[in-house]
Amino acid sequence: MTTRGALFRSLVDICGMRFARLAGRADTVAGAQASWVAAPPTIDGVAAIVRLAVEHDLAVVARGAATKLDWGARPTRADMLLDTGRLAGVWHHAPTEGVAEIGAGTPLRAAQAALARGGYRLALDTPSVGATIGGVIAADEAGPLAHRHGSVADQLAGVSYVSATGILTHSGGRAADGTPDRGVGRLLSGSAGALGVIVSATVRVLPQPASRAWVRRSIWTPLELYDVVRGLLRSRVQAAAVEFDLPASRPVLVPRQRAPRGPGTLAVLLEGEPGEVLERSTRMADLLGEDAAIRSEPPAWWGRYPFGPDDVALRVTVPSADLHAAIYAIRDAAGATVPVRGSAGTGVVHASLPGNAHPDRVAAVLEAVRGVLLGRAGSCVVVSAPPAIRDAVDLWGPVASPDLVRRVKERFDPAGRLAPGRFYGA
User: Fold this and answer.
1) What is the pTM of this model?
2) How far is residue 30's CA from residue 78's CA, in Å, rounded to a whole number?
3) All residues at 6 or more sequence positions from 390 whose CB lies less than 8 Å from its CB, including other chains
4) To which H or E segment does residue 91 belong?
5) CA separation for the pair 279, 275 (Å, rounded)
6) Nearest Cα to Cα of residue 345 among 160, 146, 193, 174
7) How would residue 23 be classed by pLDDT, with cut points 50, 70 and 90?
8) Domain FAD-binding PCMH-type spans what residues (predicted)?
9) Using CB atoms within 10 A of its CB, is residue 205 exposed (0-12), middle (13-18) or buried (19+)?
């Protein structure tokens, strides 16, 4: 039997005939073609696949629902696509402990639906439709609720992953001072699967709020957004999320002489008991002023990205006090009012550039924006882009402690077997 035939037989033994195959044309990672696809049924099966990859010197890229597989850098190799879709379900829910262990291949929406039957939820509301728990962690993807509850890493009480040598490893528990030990979970968050194959996560679980309300008002300019949000954050009205949407629009020199409402929107989510939410939403509407209104449903853009699959998607992270400067920098560099949307409270926002722009033009925009953000403790990364642009521009920009990043990769994956080239180029 040839080496290729022996490898296929081993994959079938681990996964079953229906779940091991040669990769097709659609089995790519940011444009890199895979050779094999394997979907193991158990955690032990994941470990066996990785050990098999070690034996045959194959690079492994984990795949959940593939909603963000084209994000980030193209891997230098993608020999084996390890599909985690069969690692699904809420495996253990301990309401008294406030946590649940969830399989990495579980769609976030499915996990939320299962927990909702008992009156609970995860404080995760990521925009990617169909995203899995493992994919959300690997991409460090957050939604509006991050304003109140923190990032994905903040939600992790523990994580189980298979190392680059095929060893199942558990991380979590409590530190010496009694606080959750999230060290490895924080490293795995945003690692694009380059440090370990996540197989399950123990995530914080919260009671579902009895009532929700959104307070909305129109916004004309980034500077007005800054003024309104500054007053909001200084108030004592506790918000679950503070999001804004500034769509692409023609600049208005004398705003209120042209239209009754600004082109942008600021929306604030309030959660809690019905009476409490009513009282706080009324106070919030008074605080926001202008045309503020209370609604029982979110705006149509809530929890959605401002970019499409063929656009250049940027993620900007900056202190909220400098958010307006970042938005002006993007628009000035692009020479247009490009759409910008995200969290005004956390300062994590996304912007969209045309996918048909010349790579040199995109590179110039990135250089200008990063120059403005450099002195403001901010960053601008390219989340996704058409292949010609992705391969031509610096996706990350300045990386804090690049030597540390390389040492982390070498510590977890010295052979460079897991998603090589995906972790800040390491």
Assistant:
1) 0.93
2) 10
3) 30, 31, 73, 74, 382, 384
4) strand 90-94
5) 6
6) 146
7) very high
8) 29-208
9) buried
Spans of all domains in the chain:
17-83, 90-207, 211-295, 312-403
Compute the distance between CA of residue 394 and CA of residue 374 in angstroms, rounded to an integer: 15
**How many CA atoms does the CB half-sphere of 308 hold within 13 Å?**
5
On whether the CB atoms of residues 21 and 83 are closer than 8 A, the answer is no
The pLDDT tens digits for 201-221 are: 999 999 999 999 999 999 999
- The SS3 call for residue 43 is helix
Burial 221-231 (b: 16+ CB within 10 A, else e): bbebbbebbee
CA torsion sign, 219 to 225 to 229 to 231?
negative
Q: Token digits for 361? A: 């033009």
Report the topology of domain 312-403.
Alpha-Beta Plaits (3.30.70)
| Top-level class of domain 211-295 | alpha beta
Please, what's the b/e burial string for 365-388 (b: 16 or more CB within 10 A of its CB; e: otherwise)? Answer: bbebbbebbeebebbbbbbbbbee
DSSP 107: B
In angstroms, the Cα distances linking 22 to 8, 125, 367, 425 are 8, 34, 41, 27
CATH 3.30.43.10 fits 17-83, yes or no: yes
Alpha carbon distance, N-terminus to C-terminus of the chain: 36
Q: 72: alpha, beta or left, given left = phi > 0 and alpha = psi -120 to 50?
A: left
Q: At what angle do helices 222-234 and 323-334 cross, to 10 degrees?
A: 170
Tell me the pLDDT tens digit for each residue of 337-394: 899 999 999 999 999 999 999 999 999 999 999 999 998 999 999 999 999 999 999 9
* Residue located via tokens 């929700």: 212
Write down the pLDDT at residue 178. Answer: 45
Q: What is the pLDDT of residues 255-304, one digit of tens each?
A: 555 566 789 999 999 999 999 999 999 999 999 998 999 999 999 999 99
Q: Indicate if 312-403 has the same CATH topology as 90-207.
A: no
Catalogue the long-range contacts made by 364-371 (C-beta closer than 8 Å, 24 or more residues apart): 364/333, 365/330, 365/333, 365/334, 366/314, 366/393, 366/394, 366/397, 368/329, 368/332, 368/333, 369/314, 369/316, 369/326, 369/329, 369/330, 369/333, 370/397, 370/398
CATH 1.20.58.100 fits domain 90-207:
no
Q: Residue 246 corresponds to which tokens in the numbers above?
A: 């500034």
